[in-house]
Write a structure and sequence with these properties.
Layout (H helix, E strand, L loop, with lengths): L38 H4 L3 E4 L4 E3 L4 E3 L15 E4 L13 E8 L3 E11 L6 E7 L2 E8 L7 E12 L2 E8 L5 E10 L21 H13 L4 E2 L1 E3 L1 H11 L5 E5 L5 H4 L7 H10 L3 E5 L30 H6 L4 H22 L4 E4 L16 H18 L5 E6 L14 E6 L10 H10 L5 E7 L5 H7 L6 E3 L3 H4 L6 H8 L4 E2 L13
Parallel strand pairs: 12-21, 13-14, 14-15, 15-16, 16-17, 17-18, 18-19, 19-20
Antiparallel strand pairs: 1-11, 2-5, 3-4, 4-11, 5-10, 6-9, 6-11, 7-8, 7-10
């Protein structure tokens, strides 16, 4: 599961524009006529600058052409300043900039931001609200070490004809917004553009090939439902009358450093039983560091050892010193997990295998030293599990949108991301979906490997974000009645484009 992120908000008034689309949008209130000509020739960009924003709250201001005495790094015309005052806390600095957007027609638009990030401040993460509805986690990229001024297409948004509000509230601070742009969006990507391909492992078992073929057959047509932990799988059934198709589990308690401290697990047995019921199995591994973890001290317990802050284990050192004890411990742990995966293979259970998840966040030790050690460890694991242990029941799921973290097409079968929107925010996550499409050059299935709020199925095909599957995290994310209301869960699990356990083919695991 990923760490929580702070959010931003913004509103603007815009001029007229021509809008065309290749197909009618079917969401109630957002009907668009079919196109009558070239889409690119009929586009007209709508732009508003920092001067047009209405500012509210503390910690936000408009800065015109900034003098060298005030900001020697900036060389533009001005921006909305989201910079923390050194004496203020993040909670205090929650000002927002508001624009009112007048759209000529209802429909899907591309929203771009012109932004400024001073030298050394790195990427920023924000959220935008359109007419009170969130658009999901968005990133302002700072790919270079120096001062960054850039424009980025952030996401697609649905606007109604007439007045709309776009809200960008304060988040991490230390950035500026120069302008916003909107233009009619291109049509959602056709499933015909998605490459159909074989698994990377030519020795994949018949059951594994059959599962991948089934997922390919459904991609772009239906979304497969998933839920973390068997206990919450049963809870979903009680609330909705339906079981999710995917039961997602974790090999965490098989980690040698946890076993040494007394942990045990029956997750493999649960997965075998789920497979016998005709379901799909997904697996991650909260890998407790091989060494350098705490004991029983409050706040530093051994079971926290998968988090960077609770271990001294250095993955970069281990990988750069193959004769070291640390490297040998990495191999030991991978071999131990291979034993559990072999048990699944012996029972003909294919697995959606997602190791080293959320590495780019840095909160797990396998991502703490940056992208290169993570990619090296991933490829080491792929090679050892596939070639040394002959594990042919794994569909390899990568879990990041960042290009510099991607380990390569040859060791990835599915690309995925984890998204935790605010409670009750069921937006389709189009920005992350399109980042993943770009990451794999439209050659891989795109999946939502972890989520809090489940995207509204009614919006996915309108936006062009038909996630292959979703997997709601456990506990409060599924049960609190706010992140996903029971009404929303019933809608999702009884939707004609959401596949549940009872809708999986009886002969799913026979090769097609």
């Amino acid at each position: 599961m990923m760490s929580s992120v702070m959010f931003l908000s913004l509103t603007a008034a815009m001029g007229s524009s021509n809008y065309t689309a290749d197909a009618a949008i079917t969401v109630p209130g957002y009907v668009v006529d079919p196109a009558e000509g070239s889409q690119t020739s009929s586009k007209k960009t709508i732009k508003m600058t920092f001067k047009d924003a209405l500012l509210e709250g503390y910690g936000v201001e408009k800065r015109g052409k900034v003098s060298a005495e005030k900001d020697t790094l900036y060389d533009g015309e001005g921006y909305i300043s989201f910079f923390f005052d050194e004496d203020s806390s993040a909670a205090e600095a929650m000002g927002s900039a508001t624009f009112t957007v007048v759209a000529p027609k209802s429909g899907l638009y591309e929203l771009s931001l012109g932004y400024y990030i001073p030298e050394g401040n790195g990427d920023k993460v924000t959220q935008i609200q359109v007419n009170g509805t969130g658009t999901g986690e968005l990133t302002l990229d700072a790919p270079i070490a120096g001062n960054v001024r850039a424009e980025k297409m952030m996401t697609k948004v649905l606007l109604k004809a007439g007045s709309n509000t776009i809200q960008i509230s304060r988040g991490w601070g230390y950035f500026g917004i120069e302008h916003i742009k909107l233009q009619p969006a291109v049509s959602p990507v056709s499933t015909n553009m998605i490459a159909r391909y074989a698994l990377n492992n030519p020795e994949a078992t018949p059951e594994t090939k059959a599962l991948m073929n089934y997922m390919l057959s459904q991609y772009g047509k239906n979304m497969i439902s998933g839920q973390q932990t068997l206990e919450d799988v049963e809870w979903v059934k009680q609330q909705t009358g339906k079981y999710p198709a995917i039961f997602a589990s974790d090999l965490m308690d098989y980690s040698p450093s946890r076993v040494k401290n007394g942990s045990s697990s029956t997750e493999v047995e649960k997965m075998i039983d789920w497979h016998k019921r005709g379901g799909i199995v997904a697996l991650s591994w909260h890998w407790n560091a091989p060494k350098g973890i705490g004991g029983k001290e409050p706040g530093y317990e051994w079971w926290r050892g998968f988090n960077t802050e609770f271990t001294t284990f250095d993955v970069e050192y281990a990988l750069n010193h193959p004769n070291s004890e640390d490297y040998k411990l990495l191999i030991r742990d991978i071999d131990v997990i291979a034993t559990q995966l072999k048990r699944l293979q012996e029972h003909n259970v294919p697995v959606l295998w997602r190791p080293l998840h959320e590495a780019e966040g840095g909160w797990f030790w396998w991502g703490a030293k940056g992208p290169e050690p993570t990619k090296k460890l991933y490829r080491l694991m792929y090679d050892r599990l596939t070639n040394e242990h002959k594990l042919n029941n794994l569909i390899w799921v990568w879990n990041s949108v960042k290009k510099d973290w991607y380990p390569g097409d040859d060791v990835v079968d599915i690309v995925s991301v984890d998204i935790y929107n605010p409670a009750g925010d069921y937006n389709p996550g189009i920005a992350k979906y399109e980042e993943l499409l770009s990451l794999a050059n439209h050659k891989k299935i795109v999946a939502l490997a972890e989520n809090g709020s489940i995207p509204d199925p009614d919006l996915l095909w309108t936006y062009g974000a038909p996630w292959s599957f979703f997997n709601t995290w456990s506990g409060e994310h599924i049960r609190d009645g706010k992140t996903n209301t029971v009404e929303h869960l019933k809608k999702v699990y009884n939707h004609d484009k959401v596949i549940t356990l009872d809708e999986l083919p009886e002969e799913l695991y026979r090769s097609h």
